[in-house]
């Protein structure tokens, strides 16, 4: 079968493109993927798979059983779109105003559906099970809800794999990394409380703005002086400061928000030192504070053996010279919840092509994917699934 994967993909190319463009034309945001999930569930049911709907609201899974019992592998695709006004000018551009597939999830769904079709056709050639999981709300961490609602059970999942189309990588390349690959991203909400007063008499007020300036300056030392930037990559960003009403008024309080991202397992240390700095500066300036930290995504770390398996199959798919092995980034990805639960590998399929204008960054209103990259993703799904179950 392996020798015929490319031919089988070519035989399904028209359906692949129709699926991708239909998903792109009808995007839906997280936990509102009603039309999307219905289309996916119907497709899987027509293949004869055991389909579960409404997992964590709009999630779908399809179970493919091989010729006999064995391990169970989960292949995952996300489904949600973004609240972005599309500016691509494509003939199949979004018909839902203010919503757009600006991250490639339309391609993810279509690739996994065609992979399911090919693997179903050859279910007698492997033992074990493949669970195709279509997850809602990846942009705001829907994987945890899918897991909480049982997607890793009945039958129990032994390992999982996921991929992401990636516009910074050229079409025809695949990128992955053993160990940490996508950062934990935690979001902080900080309120600095002082005492309001007249701007002409600041000595009678307690200024929260000057306190905030000191905090922002000193936090930079944490990520550059206390952590090894090569071994413990950490980025702390302040992305919003809100407060004040008039040029003559010292505000009583201000709100600050931002993110803490790290590609290592010392996140607790980073957040403790982050609050230590805030606490000490507030004590020094006579202000008080309230700090809330919310987990957006946890650290996504690849299993070494699973990564080796993907590397072998990627070499067969695109050739050794087209594999980028140092893929680590501060972007978050909630596939991390699967990697924390079972042995997993997550990798990137290049979709960037300047001539086709598919090199815009993810979440950009002109983001688009090179449809020539979709067969590569399908081949990787099929190859990695068969290789895992053949172990």
Structure description:
With 391 residues, the protein is an alpha/beta fold. It has 2 domains: 270 residues, Aminopeptidase, CATH 3.40.630; 114 residues, Alpha-Beta Plaits, CATH 3.30.70.360. 33% of the residues lie in helices and 26% in strands. It is built from 10 helices and 16 strands. The strands form 4 sheets. Strands 1-2-4-3-5-16-6-15 form an 8-stranded mixed β-sheet. It has a 4-stranded antiparallel β-sheet with strand order 10-12-8-13, with helices on one face. Helix 4 links the parallel strand 3 and strand 4. Helix 6 packs antiparallel against helix 7 and helix 8 crosses helix 10. It is elongated and about 80 Å long. The mean pLDDT is 97.
Mean pLDDT over the full residue set = 97
Stretches where pLDDT is under 50 for at least 5 consecutive residues are none
Strand order of the largest sheet: 1-2-4-3-5-16-6-15
Alpha-carbon Rg, integer: 24 Å
CATH fold name of the largest domain, please? Aminopeptidase
Quaternary organisation:
single chain
* Mass-distribution shape: elongated
Provide the succession of SSEs: HHHEEEHEHEEEEEHEEEHEEHEHEH
What is the architecture of the largest domain at the second tier of CATH?
A: 3-Layer(aba) Sandwich
């Amino acid at each position: 079968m392996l020798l015929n994967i490319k031919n089988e993909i070519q035989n399904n190319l028209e359906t692949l493109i129709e699926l991708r463009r239909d998903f792109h034309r009808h995007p839906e945001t997280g936990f509102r993927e009603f039309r999307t999930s219905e289309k996916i569930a119907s497709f899987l049911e027509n293949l004869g798979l055991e389909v579960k709907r409404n997992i964590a609201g709009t999630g779908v899974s399809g179970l493919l059983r091989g010729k006999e019992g064995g391990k169970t592998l989960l292949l995952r695709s996300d489904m949600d779109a973004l609240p972005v006004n599309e500016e691509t000018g494509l003939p199949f551009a979004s018909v839902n105003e203010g919503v757009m597939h600006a991250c490639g999830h339309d391609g993810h769904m279509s690739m996994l559906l065609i992979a399911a079709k090919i693997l179903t056709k050859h279910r007698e050639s492997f033992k074990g099970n493949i669970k195709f999981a279509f997850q809602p709300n990846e942009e705001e961490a829907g994987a945890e809800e899918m897991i909480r609602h049982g997607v890793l059970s009945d039958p129990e999942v032994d390992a999982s794999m996921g991929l992401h189309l990636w516009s910074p990588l050229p079409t025809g390349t695949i990128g992955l990394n053993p160990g940490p690959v996508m950062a934990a991203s935690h979001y902080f909400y900080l309120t600095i409380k002082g005492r309001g007063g007249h701007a002409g008499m600041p000595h009678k007020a307690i200024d929260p703005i000057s306190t905030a300036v000191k905090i922002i300056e000193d936090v930079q030392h944490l990520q550059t002086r206390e952590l090894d930037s090569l071994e413990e990559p950490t980025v702390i960003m302040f992305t919003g400061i809100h407060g004040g009403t008039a040029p003559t008024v010292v505000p009583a309080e201000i709100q600050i928000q931002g993110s803490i991202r790290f590609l290592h397992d010392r996140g607790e240390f980073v957040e403790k030192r982050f609050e230590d700095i805030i606490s000490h500066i507030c004590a020094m300036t006579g202000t008080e504070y309230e700090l809330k930290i919310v987990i957006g995504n946890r650290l996504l770390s690849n299993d070494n053996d699973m990564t080796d398996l993907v590397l072998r199959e990627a070499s067969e798919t695109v050739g050794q010279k087209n594999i980028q092995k140092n893929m680590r980034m501060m972007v978050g990805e909630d596939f991390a919840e699967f990697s924390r639960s079972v042995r997993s590998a997550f990798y990137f399929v290049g979709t960037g092509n300047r001539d086709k204008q598919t090199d815009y960054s993810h979440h950009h209103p002109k983001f688009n994917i090179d449809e020539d990259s979709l067969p590569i993703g399908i081949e990787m799904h099929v190859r990695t699934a068969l290789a895992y179950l053949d172990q």
